[in-house]
Design brief:
The protein is mainly alpha-helical. It is 77% helix and 0% strand. The longest helix has 30 residues.
Length: 144
């Protein structure tokens, strides 16, 4: 039972993160879409991302919800958070001429350093969840 709780903690926190950010972009659709178009990439890509990012965030939350797909949810979380963290890091070091943000409501108040650390914490949670999930699976296989 203890191993199950360890796995549940990171998945619950990641589900909350992805559900919150995904629905926030959908609820505030026009603001979110405009923010994507204010990014430093081409307008065509911004339009695709305006749809793809919230859908992806909600799909990751769904993957994390079910034990059969949780491994993919953790892996997807690590991948998407790494992309976001890289982008935030590039903004923080001044790699772009302007500083756009398409963050969920609560996260808009964070500075770039705080964004970076928050993303790193969530990456750590996803890695922890993935590692514990694999450890539990190995124990089940070996009958421990």
């Amino acid at each position: 039972m203890e191993n199950t709780k360890k796995i549940a903690i990171p998945s619950i926190l990641l589900i909350l993160l992805w559900t919150y950010t995904g629905f926030d972009k959908i609820i505030h659709w026009e603001t979110s879409r405009k923010a994507f178009h204010n990014q430093t990439f081409p307008a065509e890509l911004a339009e695709v991302l305006a749809y793809a990012i919230p859908i992806t965030e909600l799909l990751i939350a769904l993957l994390l919800l079910f034990s059969v797909s949780r491994w993919w949810g953790y892996l997807s979380s690590i991948l998407l958070l790494t992309i976001f963290t890289t982008y935030v890091g590039l903004i923080w070091v001044g790699a772009f001429p302007r500083v756009p943000c398409n963050c969920a409501w609560i996260m808009e108040s964070l500075g770039w350093a705080e964004h970076l650390w928050l993303n790193l914490v969530f990456i750590g949670l996803a890695v922890w969840g993935l590692w514990h999930r694999e450890a539990l699976r190995k124990c089940e296989i070996h009958g421990e």
